[in-house]
Each structure stands twice: as structure tokens, then as C-alpha cells.
Write a structure and sequence with these properties.
mainly alpha, 17 helices
């Protein structure tokens, strides 16, 4: 006896909200964001000294207040920046970037690659496929390195966080010095003609055509969705690093004496900048996670040049990044890359310590 098939239940998709409703929700979100951002300082003070009953002026109180103030502030900034960047990046895909850079000669290509590195999606895990794609598309090795240096070093999230925490002039210094290092380092590596130091299996792969990129015809609804997805992916992945960085910064803020940072990384001591670079290389953190530590170091008297050198070394010369690049680069090319970038970072640190 055969039974009759059960009827297939179908669900009618919910209609998309009209544009005016989406605008209202967007406006309400902006108002809520601004209200929360403006209350971070008073909320941190109340939680620390009223709810938790920690004494004002104590080291523990200063550390806890710093932590409770910076966590929501930095995360709120991060959400806003990542959403905006997600929308902007919907116009600049990695494929489009390869097409723009392919066939460009050095010098012009280095400058263009450094600028594109700021707005193109990049992380340590994508270093290998990006490198292979660039090389096989005809992008010169030096131009490729300008992109690979600028993309993590001149991070748009760090740029906005620096502007929000320290002011626009510090953010502009970070932008200018980071781009300069990426452009010059890539140009130097290109002049050395080290293509033979790339792993043979990379050059043995079939060449890729630089053109024929699928046209980007996304509507604004798709771009807004790209911003939401960027927030879910990036903030969802980096928030533990942000909280960990703020926790380290809180300890420095509350328990490290002001004079010790000034004496260790002081502008008048020749070893301060090299020491900052040496301390930064073994660390592994993204730009958002390292900013709170930078904030705490500057509050304790560390000069801007040494702090910038520390931050850049953490972001651009981290040991895990070198391990990933080892898949496509021979050790001597990695050594050249690290050496050239280190010289650039040290020179920038000395310059700012001498001038500021």
C-alpha cells in the first residue's frame, strides 16, 4: 500500500522593507551609536567607582576605569569604521586591484600599489594567494611588495582609531610614514632584482590574464549588506584581540610608573627606537588590538617616534606573517624584506623623536 506524498510546504518570503523604513532604521542606528559613544566616559567612571566601589586614584581603579572606558569606545569606533570600509571595499576588489597593477612599471606602480593597499581587503591568511595572483598577473616583484607592506601597515581601521584617540595629525603622520615605507621598500626590493629568490613552484604556475574582471554592478543595497558582513566577519574575529590589547594597556596605564617608559623608550636614548622594533616583532596583533597599548605607552611618556616604530613593527613585521610568506619566498628574500622594512621603520622613529 503506497501512501500519497506529503504536500510540499512552501513559505512565502517576507517582502523587503521599503526604502524609507531602511532609512529610518539607519538613522536610529546612528543616533544610538552617537548616544552610546558619548556616554562611555561617564559609564566607565560610574561602574568603576560607584558600582564596584574601587577607590579613586588607586592603581586598580585607574586600570579598571581605563579598561571599561576603552573597550566600548574602541569597539564602537571599530564597528563604524569597518562598516564604512566594507561599503568602500565593494568598489575595490582584489581582482580589480590586480588588473590595475598588472603591467605598471616600477616607481609609478609602487606609489599606486601603496595607495591601493590601504583600501583593498588583506590579512595574513590572504598573503600567499595575493602574492601568487600578483606575480602571475605580471605585477613586478617590487610593486607587489609595496602592496603587501602597505596593506597591513597602513590599516584604515588603525587610521580612524588613531584620529579618534590622538587627533588627526597623529593619524596623518601614521598614514604618511607608512605609505613612504611601503613605497620606498618596494622600490628598493624591485631594484635588487630578486625574482630568482621566489619559490620555484610559484613561477612554474601558468600565467594569469590581467584583464577581464567581472564588472562590479552592485546596488547600494548590496553594498550596505557588504558593510554589515564586514562588521560581522572582522569585528567578530578581532574583538578578542581588541579586548586583550586594552587589558594590556590598562595594566600599563595603572601599574607602570610614568618615568619607566620615558627612561626605556625616551627620545634622548639611541636604543629606544631599535628596542621598540625588537619588542614589536614577536608580538602578533592586528591594528585595532595594538592601538590601546600605543595609547597607554604615550600616556606614560614614551615619545611618538618610538611608539610609531613599535606599532609598525607589530603590524608589518610580525613573526606569523613571515611564517606565512615563507610558503612563497625563499629565506634570503624574506631576510631582505625584513631588513629593508626595519631600516625604514627605524629611520621614521628617529626622525619623529628628533623633530617632535
Amino acid at each position: 500500500m503506497s501512501s500519497a506524498p506529503l504536500p510540499v510546504q512552501t513559505t512565502t518570503p517576507l517582502p523587503a522593507p521599503p526604502p524609507e523604513h531602511r532609512m529610518l532604521w539607519g538613522a536610529a542606528g546612528i543616533v544610538l551609536w552617537v548616544a552610546l559613544y558619548r556616554q562611555t566616559a561617564s559609564a566607565a567612571h560610574w561602574l568603576t567607582y560607584n558600582l564596584f566601589g574601587i577607590g579613586e586614584g588607586t592603581r586598580l581603579g585607574e586600570s579598571v576605569a581605563f579598561f571599561l572606558y576603552d573597550v566600548p569606545k574602541v569597539l564602537l569606533l571599530l564597528v563604524a569604521v569597518v562598516f564604512a570600509v566594507g561599503v568602500i571595499r565593494s568598489f575595490v576588489t582584489p581582482e580589480r586591484t590586480r588588473q590595475i597593477l598588472a603591467g605598471k612599471r616600477e616607481s609609478i606602480g609602487n606609489v599606486l600599489a601603496g595607495g591601493l593597499g590601504i583600501v583593498t581587503p588583506f590579512c595574513s591568511c590572504s598573503a600567499v594567494p595575493l602574492f601568487i595572483g600578483f606575480v602571475k598577473s605580471g605585477v613586478p616583484l617590487g610593486v607587489t611588495f609595496s602592496f603587501l607592506i602597505a596593506a597591513p601597515m597602513v590599516n584604515e581601521v588603525a587610521l580612524v582609531l588613531l584620529a579618534g584617540l590622538f587627533g588627526p595629525w597623529v593619524a596623518l603622520l601614521y598614514l604618511g610614514t607608512g605609505l613612504t615605507i611601503a613605497i620606498v621598500a618596494g622600490w628598493v626590493i624591485g631594484r635588487l632584482h630578486l625574482e630568482g629568490w621566489v619559490e620555484p613552484w610559484v613561477t612554474a604556475m601558468p600565467a594569469m590574464r590581467a584583464g577581464e574582471v567581472v564588472p562590479n554592478r552592485l546596488g547600494w543595497g548590496d553594498r550596505v549588506q557588504a558593510g554589515r558582513e564586514a562588521v560581522a566577519e572582522i569585528v567578530g574575529n578581532v574583538w578578542p584581540w581588541v579586548v586583550a590589547g586594552i587589558a594590556v594597556g590598562a595594566v600599563i596605564h595603572g601599574y607602570v610608573p610614568t618615568g619607566s617608559m620615558a627612561s626605556l623608550l625616551g627620545a634622548g636614548r639611541w636604543w629606544s627606537v631599535p628596542l621598540a622594533v625588537v619588542l614589536g616583532v614577536p608580538m602578533y596583533s592586528n591594528a585595532a588590538g595594538i592601538i590601546p597599548i600605543v595609547q597607554a605607552l604615550m600616556e606614560k611618556g614614551a615619545p611618538l617616534g618610538s611608539v610609531l616604530a613599535f606599532m609598525m613593527s607589530v603590524i608589518a613585521l610580525s613573526f606569523p606573517e613571515m611564517v606565512i610568506l615563507r610558503k612563497v619566498l625563499q629565506p634570503r628574500l624574506i631576510a631582505v624584506f625584513v631588513g629593508v622594512v626595519t631600516v625604514g621603520i627605524v629611520l621614521v622613529g628617529f626622525l619623529f623623536n628628533a623633530v617632535l
